[in-house]
Amino acid sequence: MTGYIPAVTGALLQELVDLATIVNGLRALHGADRLPGMTSSPAGATSGEAEYM
Fold first, then answer.
1. Is the four-CA dihedral 34, 38, 43, 47 of positive or negative sign?
2. pLDDT tens-digit map of 28-45
3. Cα–chain-centroid distance for residue 46?
4. Which of 19, 29, 31, 41 gets the most CB atoms within 10 Å of its CB?
5. How many Å apart are CA 29 and CA 34, to the nearest integer?
6. Could you tell me if 42 and 50 are in contact, meaning their C-beta atoms sit under 8 angstroms apart?
7. Nearest in space to 41 (alpha carbons), one of 31, 33, 49
8. Does 3 score more than 70 pLDDT?
9. Do 45 and 53 contact (CB within 8 A), yes or no?
10. pLDDT, position 23
């Protein structure tokens, strides 16, 4: 062992990172819904004000 963690542990951690990246990419492609309460208008703007900003 020459590193900080054993090779098998590093490989398993890398697989978890890869899985998280793939899941996040699929979520982005699928167009997951926004969190409740989030809007696309600027902060503090009402629906009528957003079209003039």
1. positive
2. 998 766 666 656 666 666
3. 27
4. 41
5. 13
6. yes
7. 49
8. yes
9. yes
10. 96
pTM of the model: 0.53
Q: Which residues contact 47 (CB under 8 A, 6 or more apart)?
A: 41
Q: Averaged over 18-37, what is the pLDDT?
A: 84
Whether 42 and 34 have beta carbons less than 8 Å apart is answered as no
Detail the DSSP E strand segments found in the chain.
none
| Residue found by looking up tokens 């890869």 in the block | 18
The dihedral built from the CA positions of residue 21, 27, 28 and 32, taken in this order, carries a sign that is negative
Tokens 């208008």 — which residue? 41
- The pLDDT value recorded for residue 8 is 96
CA distance 29 to 20: 14
> Tokens 């899941």 correspond to what residue?
23
